[in-house]
Write a structure and sequence with these properties.
alpha/beta, five-stranded parallel beta sheet, binds adenosine-5'-triphosphate, binds magnesium ion
Length: about 475
């Protein structure tokens, strides 16, 4: 998952569930809480469990003496339903034994009757802050696990070897790194590799996809905000800088950073301190920053779209990731890698690409780079039945996307095969142009309609193989 923290977007009010058999007490909690929270009520333990099953609840105020069940048991069952829900117990008398049991089961704290409004609000606020932090931790753990699992950079081309070398060198430092490269070349993988190979590998790696953030939320997402900083800021929120504490912050598509925030980021990089939105003090942060861009930042600077001083601050160590078409030797290696990956994912047993299929892939320009390549292999692995991916399995756009307007992938093939391949591509191209009107295509190609039909029928056994670009082969009789 990318870091998209819509789950704690500030406009969503936290939900508090009040569990008490005394309707008057539930009502007075509601009056105290409803300004800041969504307030729900339940009169007994079973009703409380029902609410938790059907609604997202952030915090439960739980009376320990309920008509149907012991409060401790309700607590236990609530936590079983949602381990992350915060529970504050409410009781008339505080006994050590229950207190210990409650804490063991993960209650946040105790509230002893009678209580005052400020006490209740303060306690709830602290509990919810802890909850926000815990969520962040859970998210970061899954990010770490993901990084370890399958994010290895595949490639032996000399440019990739150089890249690996730079990665292991900069991993030891805390220098700011700017990764450039076309879309889908593996910039994020490079950032993760730098993080993983460095001394901060057991600390968080926090990716921030800047274009995905709304203009209004961008500042608070990155730098955090204090409670009440703006309408809707119901509780304090840590920004990604603080979440990445001790680790690495990955600012993806840095070119999308708003101009005001460029100035703010520059200050953070210089002072190593952040200030939350609405905050009054600077907070020290120890974070390594890696930025990435697929636009030419330097020309963005020239066109006044990007601050020059920030550009130089980020560009301490520049790393350029090569386009796939510039390291075609890696294509067979990448194919193996992704075939293995998708065999595993889809429980298939594809072994390899045929030489012809590989040749077609090799001739294609791959404007979407490794990401596009990976998607193509994924699709092929799901589609083919046998152990070998043949060139006839390839989608039309690959077969036609050759570099020099000659038939793709015919180099080095035996003449008969090359001719067949050329013919297939030629026919496909014409068919596409006439929107699959076979009679018209036959006329243009100067071949008999039945001959064409036979060929198409042969290739079109699996329509998706013949053409993934235009959908299933349609039978259109024109004359
Ligand atoms: N060298 C590589 N070896 C294996 N997988 C790779 C390699 N490069 C990229 N990938 C895979 O391709 C996909 C795209 O990589 P990544 O997201 O790192 O690219 P990117 O440069 O950040 O792309 P974008 O500019 O579109 O954000 C990912 O699924 C990644 O795992
Ligand atoms: Mg990326």
């Amino acid at each position: 998952m990318e870091s998209n923290s819509s789950d704690h977007a500030p406009h969503i009010r936290p939900t508090v569930l009040v569990v008490d058999d005394d309707a008057g007490l539930r009502e007075s909690f509601r009056v105290i809480l409803e300004d800041e929270y969504e307030v729900l009520g339940a009169a007994d333990g079973l009703a409380a469990l029902d609410v938790l099953r059907s609604r997202q609840v952030d915090l439960v105020l739980l009376d320990i003496r309920l008509p149907d069940m012991d409060g401790i048991e309700v607590l236990d069952r609530l936590k079983n339903l949602d381990a992350q829900v915060e529970v504050i117990l409410v009781t008339a008398v505080k006994t050590v034994r229950t207190a210990v049991a409650a804490m063991k089961l993960g209650a946040f704290d105790y509230l002893t009757k009678p209580f005052d409004e400020e006490e209740v609000l303060g306690l709830i606020r602290r509990a919810l802050e802890r909850r926000a932090l815990e969520r962040e931790v859970v998210f970061l753990r899954s990010e770490l696990a993901r990084a370890r699992d399958f994010d290895q950079l595949v490639g032996q081309h000399v440019e990739m070897q150089k890249l690996q070398q730079i990665i292991s060198q900069v991993a030891r430092t805390t220098s700011t790194v700017l990764i450039t490269g076309e879309s889908g070349t593996g910039k994020e993988l490079v950032a993760r590799a730098i993080h993983r190979q460095g001394p901060r590998h057991d600390k968080p790696f926090v990716p921030v996809n800047l274009p995905a953030l709304s203009e209004t939320l961008m500042e608070s997402e990155i730098f955090g905000h204090e409670r009440g900083a703006f309408t809707g800021a119901y509780q304090r929120k840590l920004g990604k800088f603080e979440a990445a504490s001790g680790g690495t912050l990955f600012l993806d598509e840095i070119g999308a950073l708003k101009p005001e925030l460029q100035a703010k980021l520059l200050r953070v990089l210089q002072e190593r301190e952040v200030e939350r939105v609405g905050g009054t003090r600077a907070i020290k942060v120890d974070v390594r920053v890696i930025a990435a861009t697929n636009v030419d930042l330097k020309s963005a600077v020239a066109n006044h779209g990007f601050r020059e001083d920030l550009y130089y601050r980020l560009n301490v160590v520049p790393i350029r990731v090569p386009a796939l078409r510039d390291r075609r030797q890696d294509i067979p290696l990448l194919a193996d890698h992704f075939i293995r990956k998708y065999n595993q994912a889809f429980n298939k047993r594809v072994e390899r690409l045929s030489a012809e299929a590989l040749a077609v892939l090799d001739a294609y320009a791959w404007p979407g780079n490794v990401r596009e390549f990976q998607n193509a292999i994924e699709r092929l692995v799901t589609l083919v039945d046998g152990p070998v991916i043949e060139s006839s399995d390839l989608p039309l756009e690959l077969a036609l996307g050759d570099r020099n307007a000659r038939a793709a992938g015919t180099d080095g093939l035996p003449l008969k095969r090359a001719r067949e391949e050329f013919e297939r591509q030629m026919i496909a191209r014409v068919l596409e142009r006439v929107r699959w009107n076979q009679s018209e295509a036959a006329r243009l190609l100067g071949m008999h309609r039945n001959t064409l039909k036979l060929k198409v029928a042969k290739w079109g056994r699996h329509p998706s193989r013949f053409s993934a670009a235009t959908g299933p082969v349609r039978e259109v009789d024109g004359d």
